[in-house]
């Protein structure tokens, strides 16, 4: 027997796989399809650390398993390389973003290639490739033509440090998610995508998806659908621009309890009322002050409320005709509902605090509650005229019908889609003096990003592209007259909105127009069957991509309503100090080093064995030894293999069938750690045998190969095969073998029951002990095992040493 020399073996097989084109997608096969997708990386300058491949290892295992189970697998990889991170890196290191991206991709690819993934590299994509982004531009144009992209001058989030406008999704507690600067509101010209038109579809679509509930819930919250009503409060004074103030409320049943109305400082209402406001200087000063506060500061509960009354303005309550005062206060936000609120201090926390501070009337209209606190629950109406005595449930409907109208509001905002930066897809529009905004014709796509000397942001609200006259000035495609190109670029998230489609197109005539030729292949490969990535994309990429997909569905490009059928989220690997792995903290572990010392197969097994896949877990190089030993045991088993297929002892046969069942189910449910522990148990049992029949050993190798593909292919060839084990069928199990005389054994630690395992009645104590230990690891780690008591077939108790 040769030594287990991972370096030699891994290099050899990676070469061999490439030579045999083993991972080429089976495009025209009659097999059922399985599209397994990773969230593709943006190639940063720091290279990969050991945390990055965790998700890729999982999809690799999953797709190898699927391939062996008879599926035609599509498992591609590519690069998400436009956007701020790449550009900021380039500026900092004084190289052109294009060069930086090229260099970083090369490095990333080298790092990935030594882990032994089964990617079909022929379908590699890069979002910054003009052949790729001509389609990003094309999809944008379809949206533009359908009225889903519009130009706006509304104030938007502006990062003073990144010098660009941002979408709501790019903020973290009111700061720029990239650089942490406090974001300002700035009116700049921008392109916006009408994602709110899809709010309901995005919400409803979630129901059918096999996604983690937590991610669905974040999307629901992000979309934030509220059902309520709109009421009009008429002005008592004459104003030429404005007759009434409209408010959005989720509590129409409290209409009789309104004692004032509040406008948000940025509301257009305030500007329209300017001439009627007697204390305008004071109001203006307040509005100025508020500009520097973040939304979080403004809306946090318990924060002191501020505001100014609009002197000279009164509005009439539509329910009973009484006049109430109007205020401007920053606890009302500009971008939500109508930007105006009917205040009901008796039944709303914020209104209550505000009314107390400014001595405003508090009028109870729902019975219940205690003195000196707002009553927030539903209940029976009082002081509400003809509606007295009705319960809120009934009153809501009646009051809406009598005084207002039903209204649904969303927290989701339209997607601010332009950036004043260089490194992005140019927005393919032309501004003509005569014709207005004109779409670049399909035949002129891509609109290539021009090379520039200075790509630093200008800070003027214009992108660096605006300074390149030769590029900006073009003939209008409509009238031939003078036109100017749109100089804003698309946000970082544009290219990833459709990249899974690009992989499909890439294998079929390679990105050529027209789109219609891809209809059948889209139909064949969509939706993505398994999508794996970080939870940080829950409300950005995953909402944006679903939006684009639903739009493409509506215009007949794709035939499924949702892009990603099943989603698994990867728990982070943290550094051994428990912090995020980052160059900044000096705690990065490079996979290259781990692979050099331990081998890619060991790293793969280790990362999957660390714990439940979705959990965050700290890296610990010392624990690699366990995974390495497991593989060495498999390696050494070749010594015991006897070239005969005669019956083994009953126990091993049953265990084998069970393990086949368990490993398959566990891979299917992404429980890789438990799959590996059952493989460990099987290997331990095989090791105890004098001889292992070749058919058993073959089955074992097939079960292990998704996890450790290099080593198993080497052993497979030692057994005499000329072909890769990747081309074998996944082993099947015999259900009859499973219904043997099983018993459930309770596991105790210091007499407390901590779990249970199912084993054969005849299993040896050793076997039960080993299996039980894995089950209660957590509790055993609290001390050394002093004694083990086994009551055959019923109970096993681990007695730990008393800690002194
Ligand atoms: C009167 C009222 C009475 C309200 C009451 C609540 C309780 P969600 O669930 O988030 O949709 N509101 C409306 N527009 C607002 C804005 N632009 N900024 C801040 N607050 C706003 O909340 C809707 C409720 O939030 C609305 O219902 C309104 O206050 C307030 F006992 O109207 B309510
Ligand atoms: Zn920033």
Description:
The structure is a single chain. The chain has 804 residues and is α/β, with parallel strands linked by helices. The protein has five domains: 6-139 and 493-574, HUPs (Rossmann fold, 3-Layer(aba) Sandwich), CATH 3.40.50.620; 225-410, Valyl/Leucyl/Isoleucyl-tRNA synthetase, editing domain (Isoleucyl-tRNA Synthetase, domain 2), CATH 3.90.740; 418-492, no CATH class; 597-737, Isoleucyl-tRNA Synthetase, Domain 1; 741-802, Ubiquitin-like (UB roll). Strands 12, 13, 14, 15, 16, 17 and 18 form a seven-stranded mixed beta sheet that branches. Strand 8 (171-172) and strand 9 (175-176) form a beta hairpin. Helix 3 crosses helix 4 and helix 17 packs across helix 18. The longest helix has 19 residues, at 650-668. It is globular and about 100 Å long. Bound molecules: ligand ANZ and zinc ion. Ligand ANZ binds at residues 226, 248-251, 254, 264, 332-333, 336-337, 339, 341-342, 344, 347-348, 409.
Which helices and strands appear, and what pairs or packs with what?
Blueprint: H1 6-20, E1 33-38, H2 53-68, E2 72-74, E3 78-79, H3 84-93, H4 97-113, E4 125-126, H5 130-145, E5 149-152, E6 155-159, E7 164-166, E8 171-172, E9 175-176, E10 184-187, E11 190-193, H6 199-205, H7 213-223, E12 225-235, E13 244-249, E14 260-263, H8 268-273, H9 280-290, H10 295-299, E15 307-316, E16 323-329, E17 340-343, H11 349-357, H12 392-403, E18 405-410, E19 415-416, E20 429-432, E21 436-439, H13 469-472, E22 473-475, E23 482-485, H14 499-506, H15 519-525, E24 530-534, H16 541-554, E25 567-570, E26 573-574, H17 591-598, H18 600-609, E27 617-618, H19 624-637, E28 641-642, H20 650-668, H21 672-688, E29 692-693, H22 694-704, H23 709-718, H24 735-738, E30 742-749, E31 752-760, H25 765-775, H26 777-780, E32 785-791, E33 795-800
Parallel strand pairs: 1-2, 1-24, 3-4, 14-16, 24-25, 26-27, 28-29, 30-33
Antiparallel strand pairs: 5-11, 6-7, 6-10, 8-9, 11-19, 12-13, 12-15, 12-18, 14-17, 15-16, 20-21, 20-23, 22-23, 30-31, 32-33
Bound molecules: ligand ANZ and zinc ion.
């Amino acid at each position: 027997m040769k030594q287990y020399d991972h370096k030699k073996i891994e290099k050899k097989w990676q070469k061999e796989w490439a030579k045999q084109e083993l991972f080429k997608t089976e495009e025209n096969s009659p097999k059922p399809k399985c599209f397994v997708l990773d969230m593709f990386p943006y190639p940063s300058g720091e290279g990969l650390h050991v945390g990055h491949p965790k998700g890729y290892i999982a999809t690799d295992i999953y797709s190898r398993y699927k391939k062996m189970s008879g599926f035609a697998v599509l498992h591609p990889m590519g690069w998400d390389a436009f956007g701020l991170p790449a550009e900021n890196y380039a500026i900092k290191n004084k190289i052109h973003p294009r060069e930086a991206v090229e260099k970083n991709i090369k490095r990333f690819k080298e790092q990935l290639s030594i882990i032994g993934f089964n990617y079909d590299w022929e379908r590699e994509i890069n979002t910054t490739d003009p052949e790729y982004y001509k389609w990003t531009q094309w999809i944008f144009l379809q949206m533009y033509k359908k009225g889903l992209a519009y130009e706006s001058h509304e104030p938007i989030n502006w990062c003073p440090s990144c010098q660009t406008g941002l979408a709501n999704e790019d903020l973290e507690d009111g700061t720029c998610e990239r650089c942490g600067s406090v974001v300002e509101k700035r009116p700049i010209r921008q392109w916006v995508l009408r994602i709110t038109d899809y709010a309901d579809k995005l919400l409803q679509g979630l129901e059918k998806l096999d996604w983690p509930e937590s991610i669905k819930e974040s999307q629901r919250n992000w979309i934030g659908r509220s059902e309520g009503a709109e009421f009009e409060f008429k002005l008592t004074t004459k104003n030429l621009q404005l007759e009434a103030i409209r408010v959005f409320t989720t509590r129409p049943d409290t209409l009789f309890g309104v004692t004032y109305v509040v406008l948000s400082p940025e509301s257009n209402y305030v500007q329209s009322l300017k001439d009627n406001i007697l204390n305008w200087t004071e109001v203006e000063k307040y509005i100025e002050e508020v500009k520097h506060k973040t939304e979080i500061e403004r809306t946090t509960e318990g924060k002191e409320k501020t505001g100014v009354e609009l002197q000279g303005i009164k509005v009439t309550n539509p329910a009973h005709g009484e006049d109430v005062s109007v205020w401007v206060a920053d606890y009302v936000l500009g971008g939500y509902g109508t930007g105006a609120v009917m205040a009901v201090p008796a039944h709303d926390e914020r209104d209550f605090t505000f009314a107390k501070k400014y001595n405003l009337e508090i009028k109870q209209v729902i019975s219940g509650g205690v003195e000196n606190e707002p009553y927030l629950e539903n209940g029976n109406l009082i002081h509400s005229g003809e509606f007295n005595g009705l319960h809120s449930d009934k009153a809501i409907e009646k009051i809406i019908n009598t005084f207002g109208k039903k209204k649904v509001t969303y927290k989701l905002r339209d997607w601010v889609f332009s950036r004043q930066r260089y490194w992005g897809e140019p927005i393919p529009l032309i501004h003509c003096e005569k014709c207005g905004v004109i779409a670049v014709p399909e035949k002129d796509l891509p609109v290539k990003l021009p090379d520039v000397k200075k790509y630093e942001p200008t800070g003027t609200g214009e992108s660096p592209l605006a300074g390149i006259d030769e590029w900006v000035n073009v003939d209008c495609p409509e009238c031939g007259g003078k036109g100017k190109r749109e100089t804003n670029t698309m946000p970082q998230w544009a290219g990833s909105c459709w990249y899974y489609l690009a992989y499909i197109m890439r294998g079929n005539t390679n990105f050529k127009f027209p789109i219609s030729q891809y209809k059948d292949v889209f139909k064949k490969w969509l939706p993505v069957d398994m999508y794996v990535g970080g939870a940080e994309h829950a409300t950005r990429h995953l909402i944006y991509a679903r939006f684009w997909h639903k739009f493409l569905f509506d215009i007949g490009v794709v035939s499924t309503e949702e892009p990603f059928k099943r989603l698994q989220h990867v728990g982070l690997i943290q550094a051994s100090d428990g912090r995020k792995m980052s160059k900044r903290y000096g705690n990065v572990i490079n996979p290259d080093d781990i692979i050099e010392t331990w081998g890619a197969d060991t790293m793969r097994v280790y990362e999957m064995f660390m714990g439940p896949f979705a959990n965050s877990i700290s890296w610990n190089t010392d624990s690699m030894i366990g995974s390495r030993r497991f593989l060495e045991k498999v390696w050494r088993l070749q010594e015991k293999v006897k070239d005969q297929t005669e019956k083994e002892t009953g126990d091993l046969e049953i265990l084998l069938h069970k393990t086949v069942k368990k490993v398959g189910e566990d891979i299917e449910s992404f429980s890789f750690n438990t799959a590996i522990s059952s493989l460990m148990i099987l290997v331990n049992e095989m090791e105890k045998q004098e001889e292992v029949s070749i058919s058993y050993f073959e089955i074992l190798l097939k079960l292990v190969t998704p996890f450790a593909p290099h080593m198993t292919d080497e052993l497979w060839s030692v057994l005499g095969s000329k072909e890769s084990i990747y081309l074998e069928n996944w082993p099947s199990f015999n259900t009859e073998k499973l219904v043997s005389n099983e018993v459930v054994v309770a596991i105790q630690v210091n007499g407390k029951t901590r779990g249970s395992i199912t084993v054969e009645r005849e299993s040896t104590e050793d076997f039960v002990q080993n299996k039980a230990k894995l089950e209660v690891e957590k509790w055993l780690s609290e001390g050394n095992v002093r004694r083990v008591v086994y009551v055959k077939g019923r109970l096993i108790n681990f007695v730990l040493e008393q800690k002194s």
